């Protein structure tokens, strides 16, 4: 591949990332992170989600979700990179705790907390 073609592809990718809501200075990481809580079970559930970073609470939300219902919130991505702690608890006493990378250069755009069709709780971060 020619040097000119490579450069054109790099620049077009940068344009697409910028148009997609990513901030170049953040290494493709969004300033705001969407948190989506989804209940794929047939039963209504109460779900609590907390995300903490450097002794700050970024998200503290409790929702009641009917079958196949979702709820969303956002948090401002921290100005420094590091590991945040995501804790989720379901009304059935099922809990999950995981670390997610937040801040500049991490590529984080979304966090998902889901109740599966068989009532199990999972949580993970989506990246660009």
From TrEMBL:
Residues 43-122 form the Ig-like domain. Pfam families: Ig_halo. It comes from the Archaea. This is Ig-like domain-containing protein. It comes from Haloplanus litoreus.
């Amino acid at each position: 591949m020619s040097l000119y073609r490579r450069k054109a592809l790099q620049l077009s990718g940068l344009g697409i990332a910028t148009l997609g809501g990513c901030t170049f200075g953040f290494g493709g990481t969004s300033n705001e992170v969407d948190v989506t809580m989804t209940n794929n079970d047939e039963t209504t559930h109460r779900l609590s989600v907390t995300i903490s970073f450097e002794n700050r609470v970024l998200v503290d939300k409790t929702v009641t979700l009917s079958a196949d219902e979702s709820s969303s919130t956002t948090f401002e991505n921290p100005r420094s990179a590091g590991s945040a702690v995501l804790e989720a608890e379901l009304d059935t006493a099922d809990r999950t705790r995981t670390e997610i990378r937040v801040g500049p250069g991490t590529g984080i755009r979304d966090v998902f907390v889901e109740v599966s069709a068989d009532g199990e709780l999972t949580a993970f971060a989506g990246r660009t």
